[in-house]
Amino acid sequence: MSFHNQPILPAIRNMKQFDEFLNSSFSYGVILDIHLGQLKGVIREAQKHGKKMMVHVDLIQGIKHDEYGAEFICQDIKPAGIISTRSNVIAKAKQKKI
After folding, report:
1. DSSP-assigned beta bridge partners for residue 6
2. Strand ordering across the sheet containing 81-83
3. Largest Cα–Cα distance of the chain, in whole Å?
4. Residue 16 burial (C-beta neighbours within 10 Å; 0-12, 13-18, 19+)
5. Which long-range CB contacts under 8 A does 19-22 form with residues at least 24 apart?
6. How far apart are CA 25 and CA 17, in angstroms?
7. What is the DSSP letter of 61?
8. Residue ranges with strand state E in the chain
9. 79 SS3 class
C-alpha cells in the first residue's frame, strides 16, 4: 500500500531529521513531538521546499488534543493532513477539508 505513490511516510521527531527529510526525495512526511510554537515555521519551511507535512495532533506539545486544538491547527497552521487516535479530531479535520 502506498500513499500518493510514496511507499514510506517518514516520521520526523527532531530538527535534524527534518533537515534530512527536506533533502530527501520524499514528498510527504509526518511531524511528531514538536511544540506548537515551532510547528508553523516547520510547515512553512517544508512548503518552501515543495514538501507536504502531516501533523500527529496527539503528539503536539502546547495545545490540547481535542477538536478545538485540531480546529486551530487546521485554520492557522494548515498542514497537508492530520493524524490522531481521537475520532472527534479526525471529524473536525474532515470538516475543515484537511
Report:
1. 3
2. 11-12, 28-31, 52-56, 81-83
3. 35
4. exposed
5. 21/46, 21/51, 22/46, 22/49, 22/51
6. 14
7. E
8. 11-12, 28-31, 34-35, 52-56, 60-61, 81-83
9. coil
49-72 burial code (b ≥16 CB/10 A, e <16) = eebebbbbbebbeebebebebbbe
Query: Please, what sign has the CA dihedral across residues 47, 2, 9, 87?
Result: positive
pLDDT tens profile 74-98 = 999 999 999 999 999 999 999 999 9
CA distance 86 to 4: 24
CA 27 to chain centroid, in Å, comes to 13
pTM over 0.85? The answer is: yes
Residue 52 has which C-alpha cell? 507536504
pLDDT above 90 covers a percentage of the chain that reads: 86
